[in-house]
C-alpha cells in the first residue's frame, strides 16, 4: 500500500480565528505549523507533527455558503469522558451515538458547520 498516514483535512472557514480557538480548546497541544495570506485568502495549518487541519478563510468579498466544506472529520480519542467534560466546560453542544465497537462516539459541530466525530473504541475491538 502507498498510504502511510492521515496528513490533513482542508476546510473553508468563516472566521479562521474562531475556528482555531475552537480546535485548540478541544486539542490544547495543537499549534500553528504555518500561516499566511495569499490574494486576500487567509490560511493556517493547525495540528501537530503528524497531521493538521488546513484552514482557509476567503476574502470578505468572496464569503458565501461555501464555508465549512467537509462532511465530517473523524478522530480516534483515548478518553470519551474527558472529551465530554471539555465540551461541557466550554458549553459546546454534542450528541452521543452508541455502537457495539465503541465506548463513546461523540458528535459536535464546529463554528463553520463541520461535524466532528470523536470515537473511543472498546479496548478489545480490533480494527478491521
TrEMBL record:
Highest taxon listed in the record's lineage: Bacteria
UniProt-listed SUPFAM superfamilies: Glyoxalase/Bleomycin resistance protein/Dihydroxybiphenyl dioxygenase (SSF54593)
Domain VOC as annotated: residue spans: 5-121
A Pfam family per the record: Glyoxalase
Classification via PANTHER family: GLYOXALASE FAMILY PROTEIN
Record protein name field: Bleomycin resistance protein
Organism per entry: Oscillatoriales cyanobacterium SpSt-418
Amino acid at each position: 500500500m502507498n498510504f502511510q498516514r492521515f496528513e490533513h483535512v482542508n476546510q473553508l472557514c468563516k472566521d479562521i480565528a474562531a475556528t482555531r480557538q475552537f480546535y485548540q480548546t478541544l486539542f490544547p497541544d495543537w499549534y500553528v505549523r504555518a500561516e499566511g495570506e495569499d490574494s486576500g485568502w487567509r490560511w493556517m495549518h493547525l495540528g501537530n507533527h503528524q497531521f493538521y487541519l488546513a484552514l482557509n478563510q476567503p476574502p470578505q468579498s468572496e464569503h458565501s455558503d461555501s464555508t465549512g466544506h467537509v462532511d465530517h472529520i473523524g478522530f480516534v480519542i483515548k478518553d470519551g469522558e474527558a472529551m465530554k467534560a471539555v465540551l461541557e466546560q466550554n458549553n459546546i453542544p454534542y450528541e452521543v451515538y452508541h455502537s457495539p465497537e465503541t465506548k463513546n462516539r461523540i458528535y459536535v459541530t464546529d463554528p463553520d458547520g463541520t461535524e466532528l466525530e470523536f470515537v473511543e473504541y472498546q479496548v478489545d475491538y480490533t480494527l478491521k
